[in-house]
Amino acid sequence: MDRKMQSFASTSNVSSPPTGWIKAIRTALGMSLDQMGARLDMTKQGIMKLEAREAAGTLTIKNLREAARALDMTLVYGLVPKDGSLDALIERKAKELAQQIVSRTSTSMKLEDQANSQERINKAIEERANSLKLEMPKILWD
């Protein structure tokens, strides 16, 4: 899955045009609303609504795919992990959860006058994170 997602990584910095892709591309091609409407069997007003829905983020993937086809294009759709890869995402979530677990234990030990060194706490967090990555418990996503 990571390999498939990596092909989208370079596109994560691309931002949509303020008017939406459909209108921006239609305009760049010099295609009128009427011409686009004829390709989609829609009225000029229908195309304007379609473009407005895309700009508002309420257009369905099916409608976007049809619009891409009408523009002689292919819709490319994917999700890109903010962390760069699924492994990095899992690593971050495991460390966050391990930090919470170890911090709770560390706090209760401090209250009982049995505090650990920061080095030992860090090692415990690292070990717990590795364990969580192997187990992949559902709590990782809470």
Describe the fold and architecture:
The chain has 142 residues and is an all-alpha fold. 63% of the residues lie in helices and 0% in strands. It is built from 7 helices and no strands. It has helices at 2-6, 21-29, 33-40, 44-56, 61-70, 86-111, 118-135. The longest helix has 26 residues, at 86-111. It is rod-shaped, with a radius of gyration of 25 Å. The model has no long low-confidence stretch (mean pLDDT 89).
Shape: rod-shaped
Rounded mean pLDDT score:
89
Q: Count the beta strands.
A: 0
Query: Which H/E pattern describes the elements?
Result: HHHHHHH
The count of helical stretches stands at: 7
Structural features:
single chain; 142 residues; mainly alpha; 7 helices; 63% helix
Quick rundown:
The chain is mostly helical and 142 residues long.
List the helices and strands and how they pair.
Blueprint: H1 2-6, H2 21-29, H3 33-40, H4 44-56, H5 61-70, H6 86-111, H7 118-135
Helix pairs in contact: 3-4, 6-7
